[in-house]
Structures are given as C-alpha cells and as structure tokens.
C-alpha cells in the first residue's frame, strides 16, 4: 500500500524520478510529512509505484541534496529535522528549472528571465 498517495504517470513529460521528487518535496514543505518522519525504503516505494529502485534512489538523492530528507545506511530515509530557508529555495529552484525546461527554455534564456525578474 502506498501510504504517500503518490502515483507516477509514465505519459507525462516529466521523468518518473522528478514526479516522485516533486510530490515528496511538496509534502515536506507543506507539512504533510513531519520532521523526522520515516519514508518508505527505496525498494518498497519502487515496488509500490512499479518503477525501478534506481528511479526512487535518484529522487531520494535529489531530496537529500536539497536538505529535505536525511538518509542513513541501514536506518533508511527520514524527513530532515528542519527544512532551512536554503532547502526551500533549492526546492523552488528545482521547480523553476522543471518549468523552464518544460517550456523549452535553455539555461541562457532561463538566466535572462531570472535577471529581468530580479530587477
């Protein structure tokens, strides 16, 4: 049973690992998943979603790099004890990048857009 109510749609333009990452990030930043809450193992979530374990591992790795989850060998992955401002900014950046790529913008165009908005 998938207690996270997470589904992967193979027909979306978004890769499965990114769908998983986005869903979990949203649950963490919105408070649906609480600090130190245990996440399903990579193997279990992969089985629940009918995806390869490497797909879930990549999503977890990206979430860990963003500071949203913490992983320990033999202890599994948990929501980080606290999500810092940099973690929230990192998540916003991931969202911006995904949207920019979906709209066909390259890095230079994305930087130009950010630069215009910054001013």
Automatic annotation (TrEMBL):
SUPFAM superfamilies: Winged helix' DNA-binding domain. It comes from Scrofimicrobium appendicitidis. Residues 14-82 form the HTH gntR-type domain. It comes from the Bacteria. InterPro entries: Tscrpt_reg_HTH_GntR, WH-like_DNA-bd_sf, WH_DNA-bd_sf. GO terms for molecular function: DNA binding; DNA-binding transcription factor activity. This is GntR family transcriptional regulator. CDD domains: WHTH_GntR. Pfam families: GntR. The lineage of its organism: Bacteria, Bacillati, Actinomycetota, Actinomycetes, Actinomycetales. PANTHER family: HTH-TYPE TRANSCRIPTIONAL REPRESSOR YTRA. Keywords: DNA-binding, Transcription, Transcription regulation. The keyword Transcription regulation applies. The keyword Iron does not apply.
